[in-house]
Design goal:
Elements lengths: L3 H15 L4 E6 L9 H7 L7 E5 L2 E5 L3 E6 L4 E6 L10 E2 L6 E2 L9 E7 L4 E6 L5 E6 L4 H5 L14 H6 L8 H6 L9 H11 L12 H20 L40 E5 L2 E5 L18
Antiparallel strand pairs: 1-8, 2-3, 3-4, 4-10, 5-9, 6-7, 8-9, 11-12
Length: about 300
């Protein structure tokens, strides 16, 4: 599932192609990803200019003249730009090692549920094999976005992400820390990959109850979260199966993951084999030495 770094990478990649362009036409299939009637998109979007591409958590926000178009990528969503002067790749295929569904630039196929054609001749294509993504249309208003995202958690890289607000999010919580990180009401944009990576960097076992964490461990996690997210963005996101950047290319952060997907591999820091368990119905990776279940003292904290 695309997480914050993947959505942010797509946003940045599309800016040069989409911002300042006017929507001239669109095609929307009749499927469950649309939280708005496709006919309404066809009625409202053509003629509107794209002023900005923004992001909140895992949502991409297309800012138009009179509306906000929101896209959530679900598990297999891909949003690419089809350049009018560039040839399409020949079909789709899965990488034999990573299993990645490669797209590059492509012509619309049966999994392409939304096509937004722009005045410059290009098009934004939203493709989603499993159809768990979401497309929403909100009429612009002073507090529309604030109300829509009112229950979403802290946004990393924003002023709202501060240690006081972060610590407040632990209040009255009785879940395991991995489960809390996956809760979008706590910190927005974190999914399975970056939760595992942040916990490893902070030296916290994913199964520990949040009430067992010492303040310095929470502070370490507070620092680790934006660090691992920033690294993911710098490497263009993590491509394991279906995620691709806006030009169809793979991200490269999978080559830099410390624990996620590394079951049985030696920890790069202590060489203990990485373990995998299932938590919140998600595969969860950790180093039993660097992240002991019982916790560890501040004095013996490892630098990861």
């Amino acid at each position: 599932m695309p997480e914050l770094p993947e959505v942010e990478t797509i946003r940045r990649g599309l800016e040069a192609h989409a911002v300042g362009q006017t929507v001239v036409d669109l095609t929307a299939a009749d499927c469950k990803i649309f939280q708005v009637q496709p006919a309404q998109l066809l009625e409202h979007l053509p003629g509107q200019k794209i002023h900005e591409l923004d992001r909140r958590g895992k949502y991409l926000i297309v800012v138009l003249d009179r509306h906000y178009l929101l896209i959530h990528f679900g598990m297999t969503g891909q949003l690419t730009f089809r350049h009018p002067d560039r040839p399409d790749s020949e079909g789709f295929h899965r990488h034999p090692v990573t299993g990645l569904q490669r797209t590059f630039q492509h012509a619309p196929d049966r999994h392409t549920h939304l096509q937004i054609h722009l005045e410059g001749g290009g098009a934004l294509l939203f493709r989603d094999i499993r159809k768990f993504g979401k497309v929403l249309l909100l009429e612009k208003g002073k507090k529309v976005l604030a109300e829509f995202f009112s229950e979403m958690g802290l946004e990393p890289f924003s002023p709202a992400y501060n240690i006081a607000a972060f610590l407040e999010g632990f209040r009255n919580r009785k879940v395991r820390i991995k489960s809390l990180l996956l809760d979008q009401h706590f910190v927005a944009g974190i999914g399975n990959i970056y939760a595992d990576e942040a916990l490893f960097r902070a030296g916290i076992h994913p199964a520990r109850k949040v009430q067992s964490l010492r303040r310095w461990e929470k502070e370490s996690l507070f620092e680790a979260i934006p660090e691992v997210l920033k690294e993911g963005i710098e490497h263009g996101g993590t491509s394991l199966r279906d995620y691709v950047q806006s030009d169809g290319q793979m991200g490269t952060h999978q080559e830099n993951l410390r624990v996620y997907g590394q079951k049985g591999e030696p920890c790069y820091q202590c060489e203990t084999p990485i373990q995998k368990i299932v938590m919140s119905q998600r595969g969860t990776h950790f180093c039993p030495s660097c992240q002991p279940r019982s916790g560890r003292s501040r004095k013996n904290r490892r630098s990861v």
